[in-house]
Amino acid sequence: MHELPPSANNPRNSEGAFIRAKNGEILFAYSRYTGDSNHDHAACDIAMIRSSDEGESWSEPEIIATSEFFGTKNIMSVSALEQNNGDIGFYFLIKENDFTTTIGRAISADGRVFRTERCKADFAPNYYVINNDRFVRLKTGRIIAPAAYVTSKENRISTESRERFPYRTTLLYSDDDGESFKAVGWNYTIRNTNSNDRGLQEPGIIEKSDGSFYLWMRTGVGCQYESESSGDINCFSVPVGGRFTSPASPMQMKSLGGATYAVYNPVPNYDGRTNCKGTWGRTPFVIRKSIDGESFGALNIIENDESRGFCYPALFETNDGYILIGYCRGGAEDGNTLCRLGISKIEISSIE
């Protein structure tokens, strides 16, 4: 286990993504908070560490993108993609000063020198949430970024008064290698009287081998919701409660080396469940494997310490038969579950 704990003037490290550089190094970029606040809207830049031994050890952090460059306070939630020309692309959210979010990226040819730039936002000015490790490049070359949003007005009210609004799930996409992003013409949400319900949040998407799509969404109603498409991003089925039970916590699903893996918290916050402060019931933390992309095997425990919460996983396959999982694993001593990052290395043959 490699850890990135909070420290003085660095109250939170969270939400990252992996990619391999041309020289063979594995790079992991993540949200690095500065100052004295670990709040989602507090000061945050993008940092990166590197490994030359397949994730056995890691370098000291280096900053590759700053919020100051974009004239704002916070950039966060990193995904990684290889660009069409072979360059490395780390994509992230820019939290604008008008309570909206847009997309930025840090690009590098060699994994050493990065240039930062803002992607053109050809979509409505809302407050979008795009989880880490969520950008997907389709077989066609199109880039998909599954997003949940509230309006800028709803975000301002929520930030100032903590009034809750339901999130809508939609898709942002790029047909120019990430230079600009547009939005599809649909969105979905759910509404009920559950106090934990905030609509359809933190979506993820996977392209199956036959070209169809599976879309999943975090909810506060005891499970991940799910939706499907035969292959058209403009036409998805109405989301329904799915097979993956969970608290209000994100799931990640990724195809690696001929199998599909799901990483999530399988125990929902049922009536009467007690949780340690700051963990939000995000334990245990499991990985499951599917060969056909439909049926999933055993719940293989990654961590189950009830004094910690585990969430926002990023997955990466190494060259020596392992999967790296980077995720939040904080406890009360850290502030909350989001404040401490860990990177685990799990042997693929051990996953049932």
List keywords for this structure.
4-stranded antiparallel beta sheet; globular; 352 residues; mainly beta
List the helices and strands and how they pair.
Blueprint: E1 2-4, E2 13-20, E3 26-33, E4 44-51, E5 62-65, E6 74-82, E7 88-95, E8 101-108, E9 115-118, E10 120-122, E11 126-129, E12 136-137, E13 143-151, H1 152-161, E14 168-174, E15 180-183, E16 201-207, E17 213-218, E18 223-229, E19 240-245, E20 252-256, E21 259-264, E22 285-290, E23 300-303, E24 311-317, E25 322-328, E26 341-347
Parallel strand pairs: 10-15
Antiparallel strand pairs: 1-26, 2-3, 3-4, 4-5, 6-7, 7-8, 8-9, 11-13, 12-13, 13-14, 14-15, 16-17, 17-18, 18-19, 20-21, 21-22, 22-23, 24-25, 25-26
pLDDT averaged residue by residue = 95
Q: Return the structural class.
A: mainly beta
Number of strands: 26
Largest sheet: 6 strands, mixed
Strand/helix succession = EEEEEEEEEEEEEHEEEEEEEEEEEEE
Q: Low-confidence stretches at least 5 residues in length (pLDDT < 50)?
A: none
Classify the helix fraction into a percent range. Answer: under 10%
Could you tell me how far the N terminus lies from the C terminus, measured between alpha carbons in angstroms? Answer: 21 Å
Determine the strand fraction and express it as a percent band.
35-45%
Radius of gyration: 19 Å
Q: How many H/I helices?
A: 1
Structure report:
With 352 residues, this protein is an all-beta fold. It has one helix at 152-161, and strands at 2-4, 13-20, 26-33, 44-51, 62-65, 74-82, 88-95, 101-108, 115-118, 120-122, 126-129, 136-137, 143-151, 168-174, 180-183, 201-207, 213-218, 223-229, 240-245, 252-256, 259-264, 285-290, 300-303, 311-317, 322-328, 341-347. Strands 10, 11, 12, 13, 14 and 15 form a six-stranded mixed sheet that branches. A four-stranded antiparallel sheet has the order 1-26-25-24, with no helix packed on it. A four-stranded antiparallel sheet has the order 2-3-4-5, with no helix packed on it. A hairpin with a 4-residue loop joins β24 (311-317) and β25. The longest helix has 10 residues, at 152-161. 45% of the residues are buried.
